[in-house]
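[recover] target loaded
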C-alpha cells in the first residue's frame, strides 16, 4: 500500500519527461454569483492544498482493509497496523530523521507544536527565542513553556542570523530553545535553517522548526539542517485527510506524561495509578487517524518522486510571472519580508490594492471570477501589523473594536499562493480579475457583515453542490473567518 521511495534526494532520472502529479478537482467548475459556471482557480494553497490523485487512490485502496491498529489479531487489523507503521517510516524518511528520532502522528502542525511545548523542559531561567514573523501556531504554545524573546522582522537572512547570534550570546537571558518557521506563511521567505540550527547548537540550545509551509515546496533534511524538532501538516502537502506529524528525539519524549490521555497510551491502569506505554503510542492516545497518516505518507512519496528541483523551478516561474504582472498595476502594494533577486521564496505572493478593502477584493475575485485567494491576517497578527505599519496604539484600538463585535474596519491583505497544480492560465485569471477591479471596480453590489468583516454579493445565486445542498451557503458564509480575519 505504501510504495518504496526512490531515494532521499527527491530526484529521479526520468523526472524531466514526467508531468507533475495530478490533483483532485483540477478541472472543477464553480458557480459565479450571477449563475454562470467557470473553472475554479485555486490560489489558496498556503491554507490547504488539494489532494493528489495518488493520495486519493491510496486512501480508496486501503478503505476495504481499514480496521483498528496495534491490538487486533484479525487479519484486517494486522494489515492496517502494517500500513500505519509503514506510513510512519515513510514520513521519517521524507524529512531525513535520525534513527533515534520518533514520528508522532497528530492532527496538524498546531497540535504538533502544542505537544512539543508540553513535552520539553528547559533549564530554570531559560527562554525561547523566536521571531515576530511566526504563525500563531508557532507562537502561542511556547508562551506556556517559558518567556519568549521575539526578534523583530529582519531586513535580510544575514540580519536574521546576526540577531540570532546576538541573542544566543547574551547570557543575561539564556536561550534554551530556538523556535522558528521554515518559511513564512504570510510572505513566503525561506529561512536559513542550517545556519540557524548551527548557531543554536553552538550555544547549547535546541532548534524547533515549523515546516508547515516548507514541506510541500522544498526538501527537508533534519540532519543536515541541524533540526531537533520538526512539525508539519498533511493538509498543506496535498493530503487533506486530517493528519500531521511531530518528529523529535525519542529521548525527549520517552518519559514524558502524554498531553492526551486515554486508550492506547497506557500499559496498565489501576484506580490510583497508571503505567504509560512506550513510544510512539504514548503520545497517540485513542484510535489514530490511520487513513490520514497513509495519505500523508503517500503525498511525501509522491513529492519525492516528482523531484523538489522540478517543483521549485515550476513555482519560481509562476511567482516571477505574477510579481512582474503586479508591478505594472497602479495601486498594488506588495508585502514582503526580504527583497532582491536571490531571495528564496515559496509560492506565496501577498499584497493589497489601494482603495479596495482586502475582504472586498477577495470576495469579488471569488464571486465574479471564480478565483479563490485568502484575505485577512493569516494567523500572524504581529507580523501583519508590522507589514502594514500599524502602531502599538492602533493595534490596541483594533482589539477594542473587536471586543464589541466590530470587524468592519479590520486591517489585512490578500494572499495568492500556489503549488504543483497551478498554471500560467491560473495566474492570468487572477491578474485579469485584479486589473478589472482596479479599472472598473466590482461589477456587483456587496454588503459587509460587521460580525466577520466579510463581503457578500447582493443576490448571490451560488449554492452548495450536489450532496452538500443540505448546507445553505448563506448560513455558513464567514464561519471560517476567525483565522483569516484579525
Amino acid at each position: 500500500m505504501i510504495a518504496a521511495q526512490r531515494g532521499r534526494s527527491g530526484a529521479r532520472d526520468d523526472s524531466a519527461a514526467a508531468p507533475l502529479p495530478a490533483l483532485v478537482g483540477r478541472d472543477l467548475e464553480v458557480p459565479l454569483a450571477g449563475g454562470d459556471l467557470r473553472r475554479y482557480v485555486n490560489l489558496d494553497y498556503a491554507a490547504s492544498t488539494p489532494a493528489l490523485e495518488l493520495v486519493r487512490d491510496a486512501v480508496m485502496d486501503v478503505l476495504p482493509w481499514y480496521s483498528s491498529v496495534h491490538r487486533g489479531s484479525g487479519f484486517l487489523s494486522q494489515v492496517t497496523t502494517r500500513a500505519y507503521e509503514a506510513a510512519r517510516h515513510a514520513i521519517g524518511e521524507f524529512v531525513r530523521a535520525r534513527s533515534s528520532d520518533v514520528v508522532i502522528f497528530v492532527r496538524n502542525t498546531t497540535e504538533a507544536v502544542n505537544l512539543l511545548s508540553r513535552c520539553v523542559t528547559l533549564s530554570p531561567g531559560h527562554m525561547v527565542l523566536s521571531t515576530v514573523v511566526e504563525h500563531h501556531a508557532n507562537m502561542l504554545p511556547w508562551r506556556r513553556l517559558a518567556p519568549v524573546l521575539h526578534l523583530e522582522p529582519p531586513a535580510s537572512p544575514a540580519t536574521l542570523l546576526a540577531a540570532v547570534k546576538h541573542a544566543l550570546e547574551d547570557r543575561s537571558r539564556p536561550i534554551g530553545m530556538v523556535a522558528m518557521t521554515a518559511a513564512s506563511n504570510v510572505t513566503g521567505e525561506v529561512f536559513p535553517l542550517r545556519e540557524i540550527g548551527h548557531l543554536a547548537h553552538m550555544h547549547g540550545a535546541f532548534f524547533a522548526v515549523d515546516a508547515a509551509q516548507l514541506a510541500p515546496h522544498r526538501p527537508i533534511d533534519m540532519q543536515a539542517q541541524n533540526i531537533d524538532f520538526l512539525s508539519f501538516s498533511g493538509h498543506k502537502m496535498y493530503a487533506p485527510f486530517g493528519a500531521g506529524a511531530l518528529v523529535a528525539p525519542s529521548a525527549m519524549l520517552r518519559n514524558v506524561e502524554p498531553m492526551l490521555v486515554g486508550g492506547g497510551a497506557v500499559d496498565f491502569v489501576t484506580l490510583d495509578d497508571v503505567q504509560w506505554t512506550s513510544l510512539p503510542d504514548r503520545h497517540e492516545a485513542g484510535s489514530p487517524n490511520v487513513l490520514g497518516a497513509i495519505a500523508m505518507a503517500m503525498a511525501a512519496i509522491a513529492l519525492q518522486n516528482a523531484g523538489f528541483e522540478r517543483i521549485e523551478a515550476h513555482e519560481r516561474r509562476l511567482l516571477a510571472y505574477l510579481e512582474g504582472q503586479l508591478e505594472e498595476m497602479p495601486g498594488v502594494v506588495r508585502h514582503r519580508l526580504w527583497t532582491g533577486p536571490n531571495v528564496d521564496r515559496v509560492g506565496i505572493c501577498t499584497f493589497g490594492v489601494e482603495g479596495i478593502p482586502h475582504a472586498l477584493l477577495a470576495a469579488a475575485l471569488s464571486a465574479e471570477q471564480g478565483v479563490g485567494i485568502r484575505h485577512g491576517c493569516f494567523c500572524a497578527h504581529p507580523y501583519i501589523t508590522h507589514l502594514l505599519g500599524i502602531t502599538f496604539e492602533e493595534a490596541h484600538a483594533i482589539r477594542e473594536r473587536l471586543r464589541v463585535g466590530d470587524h468592519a474596519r479590520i486591517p489585512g491583505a490578500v494572499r495568492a499562493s500556489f503549488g504543483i497544480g497551478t498554471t500560467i492560465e491560473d495566474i492570468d485569471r487572477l491578474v485579469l480579475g485584479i486589473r478589472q477591479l482596479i479599472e472598473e471596480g466590482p461589477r456587483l453590489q456587496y454588503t459587509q457583515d460587521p460580525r466577520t468583516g466579510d463581503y457578500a454579493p447582493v443576490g448571490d445565486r451560488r449554492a452548495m453542490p450536489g450532496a452538500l445542498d443540505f448546507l445553505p451557503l448563506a448560513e455558513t458564509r464567514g464561519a471560517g473567518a476567525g483565522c483569516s480575519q484579525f
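[recover] notes: The longest strand covers residues 175-181.
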